[in-house]
Amino acid sequence: LDFHTIYDDLSLPTLDDGLGNPVEIRCLRQNHPQETYGWEICYLGKKFAFGADNEPFAGFEKGCDPNLVELFRGADVGINDGQYSFEQYLGREQNAEPSHRGWGHAFSESNAHLIVEAGVKRFFTTHHDPASSDKRVWELADKTRGLVLNLPHPNRRCVEIEAAYEGLTINVLE
Asked: What's the confidence (pLDDT) of residue 85?
């Protein structure tokens, strides 16, 4: 596959796991100053979605980027950039840099909308700010969980939301 021909949305040819089971893979170009892609992998009736570095588009309060929602739609497990709180993103948090707009990273509120709109079952935040303590990373995951529980939407449900960490193993097929 020549990655120089990748466009905004690419479905790769269906692969085989060697046992006759299809593995479907799709990638989606994301909103980031450099070129980054999110991935969807479907296997044995389960769906895994991964969002690399990505920033919500303007107007996220009215919903997420529809392409990102489709990438995550119905995912059994979703992992997405969770670098900031909305206050950090806007530069309104105490000791925060002026603004993180345009840096290509997501925040708790955008992830909450993504989880609810896409109906993700298990969600993990990743790509944490290196300056954040472990406590802060977990606070952001907890904040995302609280926001999900308060969003009025038919897909809203109690989902498992955690912060990913080095060495974490997630069994998508469970």
From this structure: 82
Task: Count helices and strands (H / E) in the chain.
Answer: 4, 8
Q: How many CA atoms lie within 13 A of 120 on its CB side?
A: 33
The pTM (predicted TM-score) of the whole model is 0.84
Close Cβ partners of 130 (under 8 Å, ≥ 6 residues apart): none
Rounded-to-integer distance, Cα 106 and Cα 57, Å: 10
Residues 6 or more apart in contact with residue 131 via CB below 8 angstroms: none
* Distance separating alpha carbons of residues 45 and 59, to the nearest angstrom: 33
Give the Cβ contact number of residue 150 at 10 Å.
Answer: 10
Q: At what angle do helices 108-118 and 134-150 cross, to 10 degrees?
A: 40
Indicate the SS3 state at residue 76.
coil
| Stronger pLDDT, 77 or 81, i.e. the higher one | 77
